[in-house]
What we know:
CATH topology of the largest domain: Rossmann fold
Number of strands: 9
Structural class: alpha/beta
Helix content: 25-40%
Number of domains: 2
Shape: globular
Number of helices: 7
Strand content: 25-35%
Bound molecules: adenosine-5'-triphosphate, magnesium ion
Order of helices and strands: EEEHEEHHHHEHEHEE
Largest sheet: 6 strands, mixed
Radius of gyration: 17 Å
Amino acid sequence: MIHTELRGVHAGYGREDVLKGVDAHIPQGVITALVGANGAGKSTLLAVLAGTLKPRGGEIVRASRAGPAFVVQRSAVPDTLPLTVRDAVAMGRWAHRGPWRPLDRRDHAIVDRALDRVGIVDLSGRQLGEVSGGQRQRALIAQGLAQEADLLLLDEPSAGLDRQAREHIARVIAELRGETTIVHATHFPDESAGADHLLTLDEGRVVESVPNAHRGR
Ligand SMILES: Nc1ncnc2c1ncn2[C@@H]1O[C@H](COP(=O)(O)OP(=O)(O)OP(=O)(O)O)[C@@H](O)[C@H]1O
Ligand SMILES: [Mg+2]
């Protein structure tokens, strides 16, 4: 089953296209690793998949109309949001609730589970701006999990994390296999090796889209 198919997608910011005719498919319910050099267009492709960047050309065919969850690259998030860690994760429920509707018990349970999954329950009450970079990154991953979206887009979620935290996040991602469709941009070879499908970008084009040969070893 295919979750999303991209056909000849062009997208960019200024005059020039960053994505120069991307043909790719995202298989349903498994993990796709998105790899490529700095500037290859990984974050741009994720933004197109998230719907935050409108393509200039080509076609995107989605199997579902449900909104995706997008955990943006670390540098893209301001450090000074006046929120606790738990508030930030709870924002992940807004897509279901609307921002001005109070969360119900089920929402709170989902938020607690997301905090627990990434191992930051003890940081719940801390200000997001006061925790370390790696801890904040885990909070943002938990926010993505709390959305229970049918497409989870992760942009280098473990960049800047220590080895233990990175392994923890890798386990969380592996556990989500089958629960949701994941696209995971990463520079870590061990992370892309653990994925089911590999999408390689080079200068705005897909140079490889293959079932991952490393799986099942
Ligand atoms: N908001 C923006 N405005 C203008 N140009 C941008 C913007 N975001 C990215 N670009 C440009 O688009 C190109 C692709 O960037 P993108 O962030 O998609 O690469 P990436 O593969 O995610 O790289 P990295 O591994 O460094 O995260 C780069 O040349 C970059 O300078
Ligand atoms: Mg990027």
